[in-house]
Amino acid sequence: MIARIDLHTHSTASDGTLSPAELVHAAADEGLDVVAITDHDTTAGWQPALRALPRGLRLVRGAELSCRWSGEQPPVPLHLLAYLFDPDFPELAAELARVRIARAERGERIVALLRADGIDVSWTEILAAAGGGTVGRPHIAHALIQAGLVATTTEAFGPDWLGERYRLPKDDIDVFRAVRLVRAAGGVPVFAHPRATRRGRIVPDELIAELAAVGLAGLEADHEDHSPAERAHVRGLATELGLLVTGSSDFHGTHKTVRLGAFTTEPEAYERIVAASSGVTEVASG
Ligand code: AMP
Ligand code: FE
Ligand code: FE
Ligand code: ZN
């Protein structure tokens, strides 16, 4: 049987809706052999996921780092998946802590903009609902849904709401610094959904080549936000640059419609990630 490997999922440690323990159980129920927990800018889900790890499932500890490329103005936001890094590596841990604070400040400012337009959402309630996890626009989207202002998360991310009108940048990590820090922490950096034009601006292939030269290990090709042509383009670029290729669900529980294991990674690519890592080990229970 071919292993089913999903290397990009979110829990309540950031903007997913399943707790880390529920996430690993859902992964096992879905028939996955390997799952990575990759919450935004935090490793807070690692311990509870480990403690709840069902027999037969392998856990890859990771995170999705909020980064930016300053080659254009305003800078282009992008996401870097980081696998199996040392969570206590000081400079990386400090960057993640800084981004989490910046996210909370930005969320509060978004809410202030909404309230200035007479939209009755409460930052205190949004923070409480995030339950200590990394706060993001999906939490604000949830408040807009509960207030009956929009029907779905997709609508909340439309141009009239969090996608444009009430969109504010956050103070992300410079992507070159992020790649270097992940490597220095023994981790393996993989560019998440690099061609997802439907999310907004994307970076040029030249940047990806520059990142490969400083330690980027792979590209996420199979992702619901990539069209078939975009997936093929990413694969071609990875071959050209000698990078590994992943496929993942980017599961967020009910904050998104995608299912766990909707896209998966080839065992060879997964083995390359494990072989290149030295921060923490992957964990198999039982
Ligand atoms: P933030 O990190 O606060 O800027 O919010 C971005 C997060 O919102 C992403 O990680 C996704 O989880 C989610 N997201 C972005 N675009 C959409 C969308 N169109 N529909 C649903 N969720 C989205
Ligand atoms: Fe997210
Ligand atoms: Fe992402
Ligand atoms: Zn993600």
From TrEMBL:
InterPro entries: PHP_dom, PHP_domain, Pol/His_phosphatase_N, Pol/histidinol_Pase-like
Pfam families recorded: PHP
UniProt xrefs under SMART domains: POLIIIAc
SUPFAM superfamilies according to UniProt: PHP domain-like (SSF89550)
Residue ranges of domain Polymerase/histidinol phosphatase N-terminal in the record: 5-69
PANTHER family in the cross-refs: EXONUCLEASE, POLYMERASE_HISTIDINOL PHOSPHATASE N-TERMINAL DOMAIN-CONTAINING PROTEIN
Protein name: Phosphatase
Organism: Micromonospora qiuiae
